């Protein structure tokens, strides 16, 4: 065991990380049970963080005189803004790494969700500091501590209090140091659980973004930030990296920089002491800057906003150079809040599909850990730079020179990485192929595709419909043509889609086969009235006009009212006001004018024209028009025609209930269908179909996570 204790802290942490990854790969999902130990370690780290912030900030500021406090504020602000600028420039350079790909996104519920407004009052202005501490509202705790610390500067009788705060700070640091010794064990448990449960193949769609992000992260983390310190202060590049390793690895493994704040402060003080720069004044600067820097967006946080650049590229609508200033300014502001708020806000601000947020969440499984490691480096660099600036040992001219050099290097790396990715990553747009290759997922029944309506004899409408179906031995269903993804023909010529999958299950539950025939809206309505078919489907919305002639079941899904527009025109359809400003607006809509009339009332100057099918629009036969269509169906069409996009105006709230169309007059069959739909909703069938056909999630049996134990050695079956 002597060899283990002789290792450096960094070596032991790395060893724990590597052993954890190997354990996860070996045991697979069984390693997930170690997550509880990792969570316990994180909680132990978090235990001292908020008290440390409170004590160190109040005590650190309280020991300063007014002049020093002012210098810290001004210097710290300048340096933080400088690092922000470097990071944002790196984000802009990310556009240079992305190949020229054709892409399109399927429907997502986030397309209909509005970004939550950023509320700086809640985050930064504590009405009750004890509530903020209890609920871990760190920025509010920081603001309270800063105000109390600044107030102490002018208080004369404060020696006893400052000594008490200093004692508490030392005690908290001792606790943090003890917990830090458990880092190899805690990181082993965390990495083992992650490696055993994470499905890396899920991130394949994001490889371009991930490579670009990691390239920018590497430059900022291992060159720009430590080089700024090394070139502008008495510290060496090697010293900065040496003392940054453990905090960065710990932050990476735990997924949060909050827990390493005491460790960052300790390492900064150690570096100052090694260079004979440590004093009560520098200790106070470090104690103030470490938690203060944490409360502001770090380079790690801002680098995550590079996903907006990726999203713009991914949907084929790159952010223009004229919008770069808005990107930088708005990004820095929203980054003060949670990224779960910042990313949707930025997507909406630049009129990018809200469903890209789902991709962000997927990619954040990887990037979040790197972001926390960069945030740890950010905290160390800012604290050291401010400390040396206060001592008047910061070479400002050299600092700005190395910043310019770093920007040039970042640009060169971005161009080089883009060149490599363009040639190294094979890509072919497969959105249309995937859509037309879909097959049914419901219980199998015999399906007969009928080509002519004459093959269906009219039914004696005086008899109960359900009795007729059971005696006949088949359920007759008419489906409307090309109503993606509700009813259409796949590449094999099979009738597939959400509604047809639903009908397969209904036929299975009745115990009959399924006969399907493709009819247009008028033919389907006539066939229902004559009794030749039992049900008509195809994403049919309920309207007053249709309800006069046919019966409708209870609604089982809603269409979301939207516009399908050329990709480059999406920003014109963000709200009612932006749409009203469009001159000569032509809106194409279906022949049933119920919903077209509702939209027409909002835009009285628009010309609304009826069409039988959306396909001519997508083929470019109406280049100066837009299509009023459901967001769910429109998103499926954009898979085939990716040059179009779905736009849901933020202030248009509209739903079109979709139901099964039935023959009129048979109440008993209507009751049966309604009851069956309710059961299908409660047993999860509707959710299953929605995920597969609307959201585009793959339907496959979940297999255990690949592991050496099961898949290589064959242990455990």
Describe the model:
The chain has 717 residues and is an alpha/beta fold. It has 3 domains: 2-424, Sodium:dicarboxylate symporter (Proton glutamate symport protein), CATH 1.10.3860.10; 434-555 and 667-694, 3-Layer(aba) Sandwich (D-Maltodextrin-Binding Protein, domain 2); 560-658, 3-Layer(aba) Sandwich (D-Maltodextrin-Binding Protein, domain 2), CATH 3.40.190.10. It is built from 32 helices and 14 strands. The protein has a 6-stranded mixed sheet with strand order 1-5-2-6-14-7, with helices on both faces. Strands 8, 9, 10, 11, 12 and 13 form a 6-stranded mixed sheet that branches. α27 links the parallel β9 (586-589) and β10 (607-610). α2 (9-27) packs parallel to α12. The chain is elongated, with a radius of gyration of 31 Å. The chain starts with a helix and ends in a 5-residue tail after the last helix.
Short description:
The chain is of the alpha/beta class and 717 residues long.
Shape: elongated
Strand content: 5-15%
For the termini, the CA-CA separation is 36 Å
Specify the biggest β-sheet: 6 strands, mixed
- How many discrete domains? 3
Spans of at least 5 consecutive residues whose pLDDT stays below 50 are: none
Using the 3D structure, state the CATH architecture of the largest domain: Orthogonal Bundle
Structural class: alpha/beta
The total count of strands amounts to: 14
CATH superfamily membership of the largest domain, which one?
Sodium:dicarboxylate symporter
Number of helices: 32
Radius of gyration: 31 Å
Percent helix: 55-70%
- Largest sheet, spatial ordering of strands: 1-5-2-6-14-7
């Amino acid at each position: 065991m002597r060899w283990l204790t002789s290792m450096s802290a960094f070596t032991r942490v790395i060893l724990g990380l590597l052993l954890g990854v190997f354990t996860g790969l070996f045991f697979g999902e069984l390693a997930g049970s170690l997550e509880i130990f990792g969570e316990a370690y994180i909680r132990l780290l978090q235990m001292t963080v908020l008290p440390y912030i409170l004590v160190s900030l109040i005590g650190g500021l309280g020991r300063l005189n007014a002049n020093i406090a002012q210098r810290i504020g001004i210097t710290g602000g300048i340096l933080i803004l400088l690092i922000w600028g470097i990071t944002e420039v790196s984000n802009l350079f990310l556009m240079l790494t992305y190949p020229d790909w054709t892409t399109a996104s399927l429907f997502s519920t986030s397309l209909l969700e509005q970004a939550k407004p950023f509320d700086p009052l809640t985050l930064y202005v504590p009405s009750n500091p004890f509530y903020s501490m209890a609920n871990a509202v760190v920025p509010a705790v920081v603001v309270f501590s800063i105000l109390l610390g600044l107030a102490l500067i002018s208080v004369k009788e404060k020696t006893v209090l400052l000594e008490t705060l200093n004692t508490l700070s030392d005690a908290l640091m001792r606790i943090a140091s003890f917990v830090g010794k458990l880092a190899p064990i805690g990181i082993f448990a965390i990495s083992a659980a992650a490696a055993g449960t994470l499905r890396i193949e899920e991130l394949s769609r994001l490889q371009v973004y991930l490579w670009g992000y990691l390239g920018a992260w590497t430059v900022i983390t291992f060159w720009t930030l430590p080089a700024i310190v090394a070139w502008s202060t008495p510290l060496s590049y090697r010293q900065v990296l040496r003392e940054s390793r453990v905090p960065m690895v710990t932050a990476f493994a735990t997924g949060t920089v909050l827990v390493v704040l005491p460790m960052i402060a300790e390492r900064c003080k150690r570096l100052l002491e090694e260079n004979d720069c440590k004093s009560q004044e520098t200790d106070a600067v470090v104690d103030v800057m470490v938690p203060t820097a944490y409360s502001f967006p770090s380079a790690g946080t801002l680098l995550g906003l590079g996903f907006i650049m990726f999203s713009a590229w991914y949907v084929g609508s790159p952010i223009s150079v004229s919008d770069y200033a808005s990107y930088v300014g708005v990004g820095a502001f929203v980054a003060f809040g949670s990224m779960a708020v910042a990313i949707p806000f930025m997507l909406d601000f630049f009129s990018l599909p809200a469903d890209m947020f789902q991709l962000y969440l997927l990619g954040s499984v990887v990037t979040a850990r790197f972001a926390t490691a960069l945030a740890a480096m950010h905290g160390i660099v800012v604290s050291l730079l401010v400390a040396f600036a206060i001592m008047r040992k910061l070479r400002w001219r050299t600092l700005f020179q190395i910043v310019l050099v770093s920007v040039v290097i970042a640009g060169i790396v971005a161009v080089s990485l883009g060149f490599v990715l363009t040639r190294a990553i094979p890509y072919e747009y497969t959105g249309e192929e995937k859509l037309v290759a879909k097959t049914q997922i419901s219980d199998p029944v015999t399906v007969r595709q009928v080509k002519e309506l004459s093959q269906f004899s009219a039914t004696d409408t005086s008899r109960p419909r359900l009795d007729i179906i059971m005696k006949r031995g088949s359920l007759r269903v008419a489906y409307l043509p090309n109503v993606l993804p509700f009813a259409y023909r796949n590449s094999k010529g099979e009738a597939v889609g959400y509604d047809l999958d639903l009908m397969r299950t209904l036929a299975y539950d009745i115990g009959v086969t399924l006969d399907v025939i493709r009819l247009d809206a008028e033919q389907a309505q006539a066939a229902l009235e004559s009794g030749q078919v039992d049900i008509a489907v195809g994403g049919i919305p309920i309207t007053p006009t249709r309800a006069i002639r046919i019966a409708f079941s209870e609604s089982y899904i809603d269409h979301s009212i939207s516009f399908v527009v050329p990709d480059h025109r999406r920003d014109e359809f963000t709200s009612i006001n932006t749409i009203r400003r469009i001159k000569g607006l032509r809106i194409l809509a279906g022949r049933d004018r119920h919903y077209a009339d509702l939209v027409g009332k909002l835009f009285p100057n628009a010309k609304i024209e009826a069409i039988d099918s959306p396909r001519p629009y997508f083929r470019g036969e109406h280049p100066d028009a837009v299509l009023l269509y459901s967001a769910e169906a429109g998103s499926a069409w954009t898979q085939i025609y990716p040059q179009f996009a779905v736009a849901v105006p933020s202030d248009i709230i509209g739903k079109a209930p979709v139901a099964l169309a039935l023959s009129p007059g048979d109440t008993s069959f209507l009751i049966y269908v309604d009851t069956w739909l309710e059961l299908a909703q409660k047993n999860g069938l509707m959710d299953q179909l929605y995920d597969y056909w609307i959201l585009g999630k793959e339907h496959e049996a979940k297999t255990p996570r690949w592991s050496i134990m099961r898949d290589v050695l064959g242990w455990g079956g």
